[in-house]
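Re: the request from the purification team.
They wanted to know what the chain is likely to look like in 3D before they choose a buffer screen. I agreed to run a prediction and write the result into the notebook, where they can find it.
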Amino acid sequence: MTPPLLLLFLVVIGASGYEGDNIDSTGCPAAFKGRCTCGPSDYRAWQPTKKVYITNCTNAGFTNPDVIEYTPDQTEVLIFTGNHFETLPWNILGVWEDHEKLEVIDLTNNGIKEIQGKSFHKVTNVKRLILNHNDLYIVSTMHHSRVFSNFVNLEELHLTNAFTEQIDSKWYLSDLKDIFLNSDLKKLKKLHLEQNEIWEIKDPDMFCQLPNLLDLHLSDNQLTDINFSIDCLEKLRYLDLEFNKIRNLGQPTLDKLDKVFGAKDAEGRFKRQLDLHGNRFTCDCHMQPLKNWLNETVINLMNKDAMRCFDGTPEINAGRRIKNVNQFECQMKKEVANSGSHYAVTSTLLTILIILTGCLITVILWINRITVKDKMTPLLKNLQNHMQYTTIERQDEEHPEVQV
């Protein structure tokens, strides 16, 4: 490299690094414009027993994600929440910087719609990635199948309320499955997908690409059944299905749950946990198998006693704890019984009405018998005369006179 070019290169490097290397009174690079804090602090959600170096830019008003590049190399926890940038470009943490100490990245509530395929570079030691409350599109041109491929040691992926509501969840979930496959998240232990308006998981093997998954959080969605495979998750220890739209669970699903969560560990304990409370159970005649299962299963069912009927037949079941319900009826049978009872009541009332009407007419005729007799006598006499004339005419027609 010629001296002028070398000088120019050094000037550019120096200029680009100056703002990032210059530390202001907040302890952060000057590029953060005094809106952040940097330094050792408590982060009990990750390290409850010791202080860690935190770079915290919460609600800092940043609209350009390029500023993230100035994150100090000693950062262990990066919190960049409550800002606004719709796209994460390539290498948001820079190309030359070393972030070997970085273990947590929190990008919650930034309005992020797109994460490009090479957004994250040198994040091999990151164990927790939080993308909650964003507006992610992971379909069509905004679908980058290797978006998490550099997170080779990722243990927790938080995607609570992370996806756009403008696209049906069953479509973006298929793309998310493709991302799991191509990102090779073999060390992932916890996956959070709460509050994503998930109505259906149409791919049975949706989570089978995550062989070391321990905890799967699907609460506060719209699921009506457990129609995805869980037996492929051999290490699964906790399945959270609270506050979905499950009305009942059929025998095949109950058998599947017993198979997966009813297995004992090496110490002979049922350590796997399942949470179903908060769902809208219908306590009618179809609930009996589930009620029996709740009484008999060996599964470690969290909040079991808190499971309640949302509605049911009889109506008194609504709001009651399932364990306290002893009477289950079918709405159809009840309607038929009510219909039969209604018909019997109607027939009885009609019969009584006819009898009363007849009696009333009889009484009226008896009271007005003289007037009725005076009016009816001429009518009866006319009718008698008319019948006589009609009989004579018929006889004349049948026996006509013979003229000789």
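For the purification team: Confidence is low (pLDDT under 50) at residues 6-18, 334-338.
Please add any questions underneath this entry.
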